[in-house]
Amino acid sequence: MESGVRKEDKPPPSSFNLPQLPPSVKPGPLRKIIMVASIAAGVQFGWALQLSLLTPYVQLLGIPHTWAAFIWLCGPISGMLVQPVVGYHSDRCTSRFGRRRPFIAAGAAFVTIAVFLIGYAADIGHLSGDSLTKTAKPRAIAVFVVGFWILDVANNMLQGPCRAFLADLSGTNQKKTRTSNAFFSFFMAVGNVLGYAAGSYTHLYKLFPFSRTKACDVYCANLKSCFFISIALLLTLTILALSYVREKPWSPEGSPGEGGDEEEEEEATGEAKESVPAPFFGEIFAALKNLQRPMWILLLVTCLNWVAWFPFLLFDTDWMGREVYGGDSSGSADQLKMYDRGVRAGALGLMLNSVVLGVTSLGVEALARGVGGVKRLWGIVNFVLAICLAMTILITKLAQSNRRYTTVNGGTHLLTPPPGIKAGALALFAVMGIPQAITYSIPFALASIFSNTSGAGQGLSLGVLNLSIVIPQMLVSVASGPWDALFGGGNPPAFVVGAVAAAVSGILAFTMLPSPTPDIPSNKRAVTAAFH
Q: pTM of this prediction?
């Protein structure tokens, strides 16, 4: 069904509406988009360190296992609250430095503070009275928890405005919007590779001899050194991007950006005067209430997509150690050794995944053209994801049926799985980098495109989209354990749910997700919104 909406037929005032870039505004040059997108490498470097190094560090500080689950819930909780809040305020920021840059700079500063607290938690705890002879270090734990929560909040402060800044730089050009999000995905992959590489190098602390102290052993010192590099990378990229890419100040009386004639400016001013701001949470509820159908469908497809992704993202290395290698993190010494070998193999798989993710991100635009559009591309890769998650069951069964043992001095010892099974598992990690690249770019590009079409603020639109990511994460985190226990434990039951969710997400992407409107030449006075 198609509907034409002329420019003078303004939508009713809504808390979700802000003056947007007029169609005549030219998008920013590609070099500026790349500079802003490169900040993702610094952000993702820190995330990769969290995934690869923080769990053992948590155990080193003596944090009880029951508390650890609450600590890791910080990510989705902060994402659910912080990104919409930051998006809302960045849409309305009237700073002379621009709308997005102050929030990006503040996020980078808070990341620096958080990383310092995490890295020096053991030292601060010892100086505050923690005993080196006791397993639990309560003061160090308190410092770590505060730093960890600040880190997740700061990362969310960074990512939302970064993507909104990219949308601003892309203007109403849909190709530039897709390209900017593809570059963001690419630099996320670069950050992953650098983070996993730094985390796997056990002698990095030698570059910073002062990092090793009485309270901080070699592992702790290595983590601290990795975070030093993380801070340096993030601050360097942020300072370069924000110094090179400038924003014009925004005011409620006018439309942001350049270009546009007087009639457009008067119209934007009139819309701004008609819209009376409500309190923040009133704005959020009104935004959800006034979401147009394309955005609701996008949220649904994205939600199911992340229900599929999170079981694997949370338990991928555990699956390698437990199901593929046959180890057990709480078993005998032999089982623990095999589990550790499997986890290290999983870390190699994550490295391969990141490489494929980066390469695919650079080809998203070409892939979309090849299959007939971004919605078809997203639908296809969701089916690829479903097949990959289903293949984990096959690999698990093959590994179990080909389990090998050897006898040494009368004792039975577990051997690593056959080379073919290891290669198959690593290939699975690599192939999943393809749908992951699409997941990291296309939904955000579509949200920006639908935002331009509906007249919604970019920051708040992307913050609302983030709700469809963090809610599945919380759901999977809480429900996956009991669900797996119903089937005797292990990771495959959660992967099966993920495969079904990916398949349903693919079907909805093909059948219900609207196709974006074509780019409109700047000399046309009418704006047509067509969804099929």
A: 0.74
What's the CA gap between 354 and 361, in Å, rounded?
Answer: 10
CA-CA distances (angstroms) from residue 128 to 140, 284, 487?
Answer: 8, 42, 46
Residue 402 has pLDDT above 80, yes or no: yes
Among residues 231, 232, 218, the alpha carbon closest in space to that of 53 is found at 218
Rounded to the nearest 10 degrees, the angle between the axes of helix 101-119 and helix 74-91 is: 150
294-323 tens-digit pLDDT:
888 899 999 999 999 988 887 888 888 889
Tell the residue number behind the tokens 């690419």, with chain if given: 186
> Is there a contact between 168 and 257 (Cβ–Cβ < 8 Å)?
yes
- Residue from 183, 154, 148, 3 nearest 61 by CA: 148
CATH of 26-249, one of 3.40.309.10, 1.20.1250.20, 1.10.10.10, 3.40.50.2300: 1.20.1250.20
Looking at domain 293-517, its CATH superfamily turns out to be: MFS general substrate transporter like domains (1.20.1250.20)
What DSSP string describes 394-420? HHHHHHHHT--EEEETTEEEEPPPPHH
CB distance 313 to 469 below 8 Å: no
Smallest Cα–Cα separation from 504: which of 408, 356, 385?
385
**Mean pLDDT within 17-21:** 44
**Residue range 111-118: mean pLDDT, rounded:** 89
pLDDT in tens, 68-83: 656 667 777 777 777 7
**Matching CATH topology for 26-249 and 293-517?**
yes
Q: For the chain, which residues make up each domain, given as ranges?
A: 26-249, 293-517
| Residues ≥6 apart with Cβ < 8 Å to 63 | 71, 136, 141, 144
